[in-house]
Amino acid sequence: MSDLRAHHVGITVSDLDRSVEFYADVLGFDVLDRFTVSGDAFSTAVGVDGATGRFAHLDGDGVRVELVEYDPQGEDVPTETVNQSGAKHLGFAVDDVDSFYAGLPSDVETLSEPQTTESGTRICFLRDPESNLVEVLEA
């Protein structure tokens, strides 16, 4: 068996262009690549008949974030909370959480202002345009 290596963190979105704009403009990620994949092998691999995926790969300071918009789209699920089984979030570090928070556009949904946890870590959570959770911590 070959050794596994981390390659990317993937997020399915309903509007690829809007999500790329958020991750690039709000979080400052570089767009590495954009491409489309379809065909029988892809449909079989993802388990969705007739699937086409529009992809964007972004660099989040060494973490490759893969955004993918599928056609056909699946059903939306209710918005997750961090304490739900199976919940996911992306975590990123900044030097100053308060400055990061103050610089967010007014239309970005946050769960709270930055907080200092019992462990001494300063954190805040926000949602991307698809309601996915993004944690920003001071490190």
Automatic annotation (TrEMBL):
GO MF annotation, one: metal ion binding
Domain of life, per lineage: Archaea
Record keywords: Dioxygenase, Metal-binding, Oxidoreductase
Domain VOC: residue ranges: 5-139
One Gene Ontology term from the biological process aspect of the record: L-methylmalonyl-CoA metabolic process
Record has Metal-binding as a keyword: yes
SUPFAM superfamilies: Glyoxalase/Bleomycin resistance protein/Dihydroxybiphenyl dioxygenase
Pfam family, one: Glyoxalase
Claim: Zinc is one of the keywords in the record: no
Name of the protein this chain belongs to: Catechol 2,3-dioxygenase
Lineage, uppermost ranks: Archaea, Methanobacteriati, Methanobacteriota, Stenosarchaea group, Halobacteria
